[in-house]
Structures are given as structure tokens and as C-alpha cells.
Amino acid sequence: xxxxxxxxxxxxxxxxxxxxxxxxxxxxxxxxxxxxxxxxxxxxxxxxxxxxxxxxxxxxxxxxxxxxxxxxxxxxxxxxxxxxxxxxxxxxxxxxxxxxxxxxxxxxxxxxxxxxxxxxxxxxxxxxxxxxxxxxxxxxxxxxxxxxxxxxxxxxxxxxxxxxxxxxxxxxxxxxxxxxxxxxxxxxxxxxxxxxxxxxxxxxxxxxxxxxxxxxxxxxxxxxxxxxxxxxxxxxxxxxxxxxxxxxxxxxxxxxxxxxxxxxxx
Length: 266
Hints:
Blueprint: H1 2-11, E1 14-17, H2 29-32, E2 36-39, E3 42-47, E4 50-53, E5 59-62, H3 73-78, H4 88-103, H5 105-138, H6 147-181, H7 185-199, H8 212-265
Parallel strand pairs: 1-5
Antiparallel strand pairs: 2-3, 3-4
Helix pairs in contact: 4-5, 4-7, 4-8, 5-6
């Protein structure tokens, strides 16, 4: 492993160390601690008795399967720790998005469009701000006599006001979409609960292990099956109503015939 790290440091390759425990090998401490030695324009890292030339594109990733590891404060300060553990609330939100996408694709598409629109508004406002600062910094002479700059400022102000109004409308629309999506919250809540119940089955036997990816596939399949059954039930109800209507229409001539027979006998 040490040779692989040394090669990656000098050649700018990313390296991943898997299944680490709470105690990390002290040999790689200079790497994750960024103990860089500068000599002129070059950067070096000392591992053991070797000085390695540090490549700018080198990255070190360390992975642990521990659910709640406790690393020393120096490691927490020197490394960026990302927790990929699935939480019940996080999974519930993910399943809610999935259910809404399946049941109400119009709401899902509208929500996605609004998010992109809001991000576009933020980028446009930032561009306007940067452009104004550049124009003011490069302006020469009296600013009040610079007609082009004044017109540009007025246009930017008008555009900024319009963007803020549209942004406010989009926020209100997003709230309405979220409110409509909450109708599917119970389904998402039950789905998250089922996944965490399945995750506890490993205590019975190690055979019972389930990945989140496979669980999501099962949820999608279940939604499709239920939707297909609902469609079939609606068709059956509609067909039954038509049959009853035809039966009633067929009964009317019979009643008229019986009336005519009674009249002839009389």
C-alpha cells in the first residue's frame, strides 16, 4: 500500500484506502496532515525516509464501513469527513421525491423546472453585481457625466427588480408544489420505516442484508404494480356500469311488448 501511495503522490493519481479503522497508520500521517515542504517552486512530502515530489492533482480518499467512527481531533481537523450513512428522515425525503415522480410527474417536472429557474436567477443577479462593480471600477472621469454608465446602471436595476419579483413568485409556487407533495408523505414514511426494519434483520442472520439501491428498485416496482391494479379496477368498474346500462335499455322494449299483449287480450 505504501508504494501505491508514493506512486500516486508523485504522479497525481487519486488513491482510495478502504475499510480503515479508527486507528490510521502513522506512515501516511504526513499525507493527510498536508505536511508539505516547499523548496523553490516545488512541493515535497516526506514519508518515512523518502521525500516525494507532490503532484498538484493528487487526492487521498479514506473509506470506513464503521457507522459512527470516533477519530482523534487532529484527524477531524486535517481531513474533510463526509458521512454517507442513510438516515430515516433523509430516506423519507428521497422516497417522497420518488413517489411524487411516479404518481404526479407533472409536479415533479414543475419542481425541477422551478429549481433550475431559481438557480438561474441567482446566477443572473451575481453576474449583474459583478458587471456593475467592473463598470464602476473602470469608469473614468466624473461618473455622473458618464451617460453610458448611468443607462447601464438603470437597466441593471430594472432587470434586478424583475428577477427578484419572478424569484418571489417561483418561491411561492414551490411552496404550493411542496404542499401538494406532502399528500404522499405517509407512503414515504412507511417506506423508510420498512427499509430500517429490514436493516435490523442482520441481527437474526448475516444472510439478511439489503442495499439501498435494491430497496429503491423494489419500491418502484411496487408502485408500478399498484398503479396497474388501480387502472384495471377502474376499467372493470367502468365496464360493469356499461353492462348495467345496456341491460336497462334492453328491458324497456320487453315492458312495452307485455303491455301490448295485455291490451290485445282485453
